[in-house]
Design goal:
globular; alpha+beta; 24% helix
């Protein structure tokens, strides 16, 4: 999955597959996780947020199934 670099304290890049609704997040610790069944609106909110860590904590973390991709 192609990821786009973002400005964030803990997130390096974001990728999203609109067909499968999978969100891929690369964190600063070089860990990559894929989150399943993410609505397009949630991805767009994360991508556009100026406080990505806060958005992630409020709308994604502990709400969606995920697995480590690397």
């Amino acid at each position: 999955m192609n990821r786009i670099p973002v400005k964030s304290r803990s997130i390096v890049s974001l990728g999203y597959d609109s067909t499968t609704h999978v969100l891929e997040i690369e964190f600063t610790k070089k860990e990559i996780f894929q989150y399943i069944n993410i609505p397009q609106t949630v991805y767009a909110g994360l991508f556009q947020s100026s406080a990505k860590e806060d958005y992630f904590a409020s709308f994604i973390k502990n709400r969606y199934y995920f697995f480590r991709a690397n």
